[in-house]
Amino acid sequence: MTLSRAESAADHDRTVVVGAGLAGLAAALKLAEAGKAVTLLESRRQLGGRASSFLDPSTQELVDNCQHVSMGCCTNLADFCDRVGISDQIEIHRILYFLDEQGHVSRMSAAPLPAPLHLAPSFLFLRFLRLGQKIQVARGMIALLARSADTPGESFLAWLRAKGQQDDTIERFWGLVLTSALNESIDRIDLHYARQVFVEGFLARGRAFRVEIPRTPLSEFYGPVLEASLRSRGVDLRTQTNVARVVFENARVAGVSLRTGETISAKNVILAVAPHHVASLIPEENRRQDDRFEGIERLESSPITSVHLWYDRPVMTYPHLVVVGRQVQWLFRRPAGNEGYVQAVISASRDLSARGAEEVLSIVRAETEELLPLARSATLKHHRVVTERRATFSVLPGVDRDRPSSDSSTAGLVLAGDYVQTGWPATMEGAVRGGYIAAGSVLGLSPAQSLVPSLQAEPTVRLLAWLAEYIFPTRKGTLG
Ligand SMILES: Cc1cc2nc3c(=O)[nH]c(=O)nc-3n(C[C@H](O)[C@H](O)[C@H](O)COP(=O)(O)OP(=O)(O)OC[C@H]3O[C@@H](n4cnc5c(N)ncnc54)[C@H](O)[C@@H]3O)c2cc1C
């Protein structure tokens, strides 16, 4: 296919971004801020990609496909929200509430102590771990701090066992945190990503672990304010615009063709779609010339199930609960309005996603009503079960070998998304990083120049990390 040559000078330098999930939005923002001509094409009506909502026909409410949570350590997502003017719509939870099988609620919050001791007082009082388990966890945390523990490609479960962590500690603490943070079961996690969650998310700084939740449904959060902000910077944003193919001329990107038959010329195309959509948009001969595509096909994905329950009265007194020892892992209450609404989330929900919606509802409802005494006497008015089968890619040991670089060996084709080499797991932060790196690649910047730096660990953490090398020596690439 040959593209029309009757374009303005700006069009010759134009970048087309395909997909207005967080990666595409972040890439378009960065390019527009650098004064580049940018067209952002999205097949759906709304922005936000996987972080979006749907209109529930019975209640006429916007309901999130799943509650999306970020943390204080997500520096690039925070930067993106600041730039587009939506940060004031984020609710910050400075206390993490854990609910155990006995109905006890334990609180984790930061004490005014230098990191990583800020969490020590509340950790000591967690009711769902015995003293012996807490000592094991503390030893594991110190071992994780050692820089030599950062060995991508190793299994975290094997590392835990080599460090003497017992099965019940693994299940009740390490698995509890990681299954929801990484959307994978504990036996399928790369050591690098597990370490990142605990070191960057909990230990490095006091504010890193705070939980951040949009006050509004995701489609409003990533909605009109964001859209106006992009347009005011000159982004040519087109929703309900389905890209059929990336068009190449002489092995170089020339633009994209739409399902309507229209073509749009571009010097660069940033492909910011989910990994399983990539192959269908690139002609086979161009894929064969670019070895990044083989790795993408090997990426595995993991499902998330969310169950939305509408009761006839308020049933949950805490803003969220991390649930210990059940299938349900998190419960969320809506910040305002719909006081009877509760959302139950199950990450890495392979067991549940093989079952029918009614069976999932009955399992989750029974657990929710056991966990929330107020729900037992309330009437369930309405429910929705949503399973996203390909919610995120799996952070399997060695996954980085298959994550492609953003930058292109096929001239002009840049990849963006949570799955490219961002150093982060599949999260909103990972997606924004992917978008910033892709924009940087078009602008001739390295990933380090394109990203907002991660939170700096406090000096006490760095000292402890240094000492940890001596307390728990770990040769690089080996366990134990
Ligand atoms: C159920 C669920 C729960 C999650 N929970 C969390 C959480 O709590 N915290 C967190 O940080 N992350 C969470 N995530 C992960 C997070 O949503 C993703 O990592 C992130 O949104 C991915 O963004 P992306 O831009 O890389 O891809 P996507 O969001 O998939 O964006 C790709 C976009 O491309 C568009 N597109 C595809 N094909 C075409 C085409 N041919 N033409 C035009 N447009 C096209 C799609 O419509 C989509 O909008 C969750 C994900 C799911 C599914």
Describe this structure in words.
The protein is of the alpha/beta class and 480 residues long. The chain folds into three domains: 9-51 and 218-298 and 398-445, FAD/NAD(P)-binding domain (3-Layer(bba) Sandwich), CATH 3.50.50; 95-101 and 108-209 and 466-471, no CATH class; 301-393, Polyamine Oxidase, Chain A, domain 2, CATH 3.90.660.10. It is built from 19 helices and 20 strands. The strands form five sheets. The chain has a seven-stranded mixed β-sheet. A five-stranded parallel β-sheet has the order 10-2-1-14-20, covered by helices on one side. Strand 1, helix 2 and strand 2 form a beta-alpha-beta unit. The longest helix has 16 residues, at 167-182. It is globular, with a radius of gyration of 23 Å. The chain binds flavin-adenine dinucleotide (FAD). Flavin-adenine dinucleotide is lined by residues 18-24, 41-44, 49-51, 65-66, 68-70, 242-243, 272-274, 277, 281, 304, 388, 391-392, 417-418, 426-431, 434.
Number of strands: 20
The main pleated sheet reads as: 7 strands, mixed
- Give the % helix: 25-40%
How many separate helices? 19
Query: Low-confidence spans: pLDDT under 50, at least 5 residues?
Result: 1-6, 475-480
Tell me which ligands are bound: flavin-adenine dinucleotide
CATH top level of the largest domain is Alpha Beta
Structural category:
alpha/beta
Identify the strand order in the major beta sheet: 8-7-16-17-18-15-19
What would you say the CATH architecture of the largest domain is? 3-Layer(bba) Sandwich
Rg from alpha-carbon coordinates: 23 Å
